[in-house]
Amino acid sequence: MNVKAYIESGTLELYILGAASKEETRELLQLKKQYPEIEQALFELETDLEKLAQYSAIAPPPALFKKIEDNINELVKADDRHHLTVYTNNHDYDTDQKSRFIEVEAETNQMRIHKAWRWIFAAVFILSKIFLIASIYYYLENSHAQEQIQQLRTELKQYNPHKY
Description:
Number of helices: 6
Order of helices and strands: HHHHHEEH
Number of strands: 2
Largest sheet: 2 strands, antiparallel
Structural class: mainly alpha
Strand content: 5-15%
Oligomer: single chain
């Protein structure tokens, strides 16, 4: 197998970005075990992507963390626990505060939105259909007008061939 060609094929980038298919992912994970060059290239790409993310990161407002913490505490204290389960994971190998994260599991895969947003989404949907119909109408009107202009030009050429 040509390892260099495989590395340059773009499969590693697709895998890192999460756009690789299941077959490509399975193949990459198998090849990574067999070829240290692929493992090294994958590590370098992940490192570069992490550096890029850190470079372009924008720090959130300081009050945001407190607001998120208050919201999470409110969810944990809520009696209605069947909608949301909150887990906190601390990895044994890394006790740094930044490595802690919260997994959120919902019983349904449907997203809940505030009722006001439903009306806004409905209005945007209806407006998009109105604009679509209007754009089709004006496109057809424009093409009809262009045909009429072309017809008038040919008629003018017939009546006065020296001027045009």
